[in-house]
C-alpha cells in the first residue's frame, strides 16, 4: 500500500482525463439469484451464466493491448472449464487443498471457481505476505499445489523454495526469469485450447470451501474453515441489507485474499449480476476510478484517511476564500446529511446555500471518485468519526460495516437510509448479536465458521456450546440495534493503579494528528501511558523549528536520528499530541513518547498483510525503547 500517496491525483483537479468504459446492454434475465440452503458457490456461477451469458462480468486492463477488456459471464465459465481440466490432470480429489498467491484479477476468481466446482478447498495467500508465513500456511493446510503470478512471487518465496518443492505442483501464469522451484510449470502449457463443460455435483453446501488464514497480529496465523453455506448465507444477508442490481459496477482493489473483498466484491456480484472491474494497482487507482466510474466501492479506512489528507492539503494551500468556502460546504453538507437521515432540522439558510456549495465544491470531490458512486463501504478497521463525517458532508455516501474472517465476514453494516457513522450499523438480516460478559460482542448465524483448521482447542475458545461466536471485541448495542465497537477485549492495558485503557481508542485519537503516521500505545502494568510514534515526513522539521532547533541536517539519516532523540523535539511532539486525548478520562494521558527511526511496514514484518500493527512483534523488537519510557520513574 506504499502507493497510497498517489491518491493526491484524485483531488487536485489535474488528474487524468476521463475515459468512460461503455459496456453492452444487460440481458433482461439478470435479477439477483435466490440463494437457498442447498446452494453451492459453483452452482451460483452456473445459474448466473444461464441467466445472463452475454452480460459483462469483468473488466480488466490488458497491458499488451494498452486498453481495458470486457469479459462476459460465458467467458468466465469457459475459462473455469479450462482450469478444471488442468486441475484434473494433477489427480487432485475433492477435499484436497490448493493455494493461490495472485494479485487481484479475474484469474484469481477463475481459479477459485474452478477449484470449488471440483470440490477442492482453496487457500488464498497475500502477495505481500512474508515468505515464512506463506511457508507456514502451505505446511499447515497441507496444500498440494500453488498458483502464482510469476517472477515477483518466485523472488519473494525464494527462501522457502524447499517448501514449494514438496508440493505436487507450482503453476505460474507468467514465465519467471531467474531461480524457480524444480516443480514449477507454466499455466499456458497446461491449459487446453478448447473448454469443455463446467463441472458440477462434486460438492455440498456444508462442505469446506476455503481455509482463510487470519493475519496473525499476536501470533501465528490460524486457518479459518469456511463452507459454501457460510459464504452464501453472508452473501444473501448482504443483498437483503444493501440494495444492488446488475446495473451496478464495482472497482476491486482490496486483496481478494481478504474475506471482505472476497464476499462483497466477488461472490456477491455473481449473485446480483454486477460487473467487477479489477484495478491495475493502488498507484493507478485515481485514473482507474475516472475510467471505470464505479457505483460501489469497498475500501479500508486508510484509503479514505489518505484521501481526506490530500484534499485538506490542497485546500489549506489555497487562498483564504477557498478555505472558507470549503468550511461552509462541510458545515452545510453535514446539516443536509442529518436532515436526510431524519435526525436534524435544516436551517432555511442552509437549504438555500447548500445546493450552490455542493455544485461548486463538493461535486468536484465526487467527480474524482468517478461521479457515479452510489455508496462506499468502509470495513476491515474502525473508520475515524472525523473521516466519515468529512465525506458524508461532501455527499460521498460512506457506510461503515463490521465483521471478522470467522463470520464470512460481515456481521453488521449501516444502511444508506439509516446511517449512524459512529457505529458499524445494525446486524445483517438473520444474524443474531448480543453483548456478553466484559461487554464482549457475541454473534450467531449460519455464516459463523466451521472452526479453525487443525486447532480444535482454539475453536472451543471462541464458539460456545450454544453456537455463539465470541468476537473478542467490546461493544454496545443502541436502542435501534446499531452496534458501536469500543475496543478489543485482549488489548486492554491495565495500569499499575488498576485503571483500564483500550489502546486502540487512544491510538485512533492520536493518529488523527497531522504529525502522526503510525502510533502504538504502551502501559500495561506500568504507572502511566507511553507511546511509540512514527512521524510523518514533514513533521520532524516542524517540531525541530518549534523546539528552536535548526533542522538543516534533516535530509541526512544521522541528523534526523539525532533530532528524534532530542528531548526538546520529543517534548514539542508530546505537547502537540496531548490535546487529542482531552475527551478521555484524566488517567488517559501520555507521559512519555519515543519517536521511531523507521516506519512499520510489511517488509520489516511489523504490519500484517491487511496493514494492521503486529503489536507483539513491535513490542518485542523495541522492548528497550519501551523500557526507556519508564526509566525516569
TrEMBL record:
GO terms for molecular function: ATP binding; long-chain fatty acid-CoA ligase activity. Its EC number is 6.2.1.3. SUPFAM superfamilies: Acetyl-CoA synthetase-like. Signal peptide: none annotated. Keywords: ATP-binding, Ligase, Nucleotide-binding. It catalyses: a long-chain fatty acid + ATP + CoA = a long-chain fatty acyl-CoA + AMP + diphosphate. It is an enzyme of class 6 (ligase). Residues 46-453 form the AMP-dependent synthetase/ligase domain. InterPro entries: AMP-bd_C_sf, AMP-binding_CS, AMP-dep_synth/lig_dom, ANL_N_sf. GO terms for cellular component: membrane. It holds the Pfam family AMP-binding_C_3. This is Long-chain-fatty-acid--CoA ligase. It comes from Thioalkalivibrio nitratireducens (strain DSM 14787 / UNIQEM 213 / ALEN2).
Amino acid at each position: 500500500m506504499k502507493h497510497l500517496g498517489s491518491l493526491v491525483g484524485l483531488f487536485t483537479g489535474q488528474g487524468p482525463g476521463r475515459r468512460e468504459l461503455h459496456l453492452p446492454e444487460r440481458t433482461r434475465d439478470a435479477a439477483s439469484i435466490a440463494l437457498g440452503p442447498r446452494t453451492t458457490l459453483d452452482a451460483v456461477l452456473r445459474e448466473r451464466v444461464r441467466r445472463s451469458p452475454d452480460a459483462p462480468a469483468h473488466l480488466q486492463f490488458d497491458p499488451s493491448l494498452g486498453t481495458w477488456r470486457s469479459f462476459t459471464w460465458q467467458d468466465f465459465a469457459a475459462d473455469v472449464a479450462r482450469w478444471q481440466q488442468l486441475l484434473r490432470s494433477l489427480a487432485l480429489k475433492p477435499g484436497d487443498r490448493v493455494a493461490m498467491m495472485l494479485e487481484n484479477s479475474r484469474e484469481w476468481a477463475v481459479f477459485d471457481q474452478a477449484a470449488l466446482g471440483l470440490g477442492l478447498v482453496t487457500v488464498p495467500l497475500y502477495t505481500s505476505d512474508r515468505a515464512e508465513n506463506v511457508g507456514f500456511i502451505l505446511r499447515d493446510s497441507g496444500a498440494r499445489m500453488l498458483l502464482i503470478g510469476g517472477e515477483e512471487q518466485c523472488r519473494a518465496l525464494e527462501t522457502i523454495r524447499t517448501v514449494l518443492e514438496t508440493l505436487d505442483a507450482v503453476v505460474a501464469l507468467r514465465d519467471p526469469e531467474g531461480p524457480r522451484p524444480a516443480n514449477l510449470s507454466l499455466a499456458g502449457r497446461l491449459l487446453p485450447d478448447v473448454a469443455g463443460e463446467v463441472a458440477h455435483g462434486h460438492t455440498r453446501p456444508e462442505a469446506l470451501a476455503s481455509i482463510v488464514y487470519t493475519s496473525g497480529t499476536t501470533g501465528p496465523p490460524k486457518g479459518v474453515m469456511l463452507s459454501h453455506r457460510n459464504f452464501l448465507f453472508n452473501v444473501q444477508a448482504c443483498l437483503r441489507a444493501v440494495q444492488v442490481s446488475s446495473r451496478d459496477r464495482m472497482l476491486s482493489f482490496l486483496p481478494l485474499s481478504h474475506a471482505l473483498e472476497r464476499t462483497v466484491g466477488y461472490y456477491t456480484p455473481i449473485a446480483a449480476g454486477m460487473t467487477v472491474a479489477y484495478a491495475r494497482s493502488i498507484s493507478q487507482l485515481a485514473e482507474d476510478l475516472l475510467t471505470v466510474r464505479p457505483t460501489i466501492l469497498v475500501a479500508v479506512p486508510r484509503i479514505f484517511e489518505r484521501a481526506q489528507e490530500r484534499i485538506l492539503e490542497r485546500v489549506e494551500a489555497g487562498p483564504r476564500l477557498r478555505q472558507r468556502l470549503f468550511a461552509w460546504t462541510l458545515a452545510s453538507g453535514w446539516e443536509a446529511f442529518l436532515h436526510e437521515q431524519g435526525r436534524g432540522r435544516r436551517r432555511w439558510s442552509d437549504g438555500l446555500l447548500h445546493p450552490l456549495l455542493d455544485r461548486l465544491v463538493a461535486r468536484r470531490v465526487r467527480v474524482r471518485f468517478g461521479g457515479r458512486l452510489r455508496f462506499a463501504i468502509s470495513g476491515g478497521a474502525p473508520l475515524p468519526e472525523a473521516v466519515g463525517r468529512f465525506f458524508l458532508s461532501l455527499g460521498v455516501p460512506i457506510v461503515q460495516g463490521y465483521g471478522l474472517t470467522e463470520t464470512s465476514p460481515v456481521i453488521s453494516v449501516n444502511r444508506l437510509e439509516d446511517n449512524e457513522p459512529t457505529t458499524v450499523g445494525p446486524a445483517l438480516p438473520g444474524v443474531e448479536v448480543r453483548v456478553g460478559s466484559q461487554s464482549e460482542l457475541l454473534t450467531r448465524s449460519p455464516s459463523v465458521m466451521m472452526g479453525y483448521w487443525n486447532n480444535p482447542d482454539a475453536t472451543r475458545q471462541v464458539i460456545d456450546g450454544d453456537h455463539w461466536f465470541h468476537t473478542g471485541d467490546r461493544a454496545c448495542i443502541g436502542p435501534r440495534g446499531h452496534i458501536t465497537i469500543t475496543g478489543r477485549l485482549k488489548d486492554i492495558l491495565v495500569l499499575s493503579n488498576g485503571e483500564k485503557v483500550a489502546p486502540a481508542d487512544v491510538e485512533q485519537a492520536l493518529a488523527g494528528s497531522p504529525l502522526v503516521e503510525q502510533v502504538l500505545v504502551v502501559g500495561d502494568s506500568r504507572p502511566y501511558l507511553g507511546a511509540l510514534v512514527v512521524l510523518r515526513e514533514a513533521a520532524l522539521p516542524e517540531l525541530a523549528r518549534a523546539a528552536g532547533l535548526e533542522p538543516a541536517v534533516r535530509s541526512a539519516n544521522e541528523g534526523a536520528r539525532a533530532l528524534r532523540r532530542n528531548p526538546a523535539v520529543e517534548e514539542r511532539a508530546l505537547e502537540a499530541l496531548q490535546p487529542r486525548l482531552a475527551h478521555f478520562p484524566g488517567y488517559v494521558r501520555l507521559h512519555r513518547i519515543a519517536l521511531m527511526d523507521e516506519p512499520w511496514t510489511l517488509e520489516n514484518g511489523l504490519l500484517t498483510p491487511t496493514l494492521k500493527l503486529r503489536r507483539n512483534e513491535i513490542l518485542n523488537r523495541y522492548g528497550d525503547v519501551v523500557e526507556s519510557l519508564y526509566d525516569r520513574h
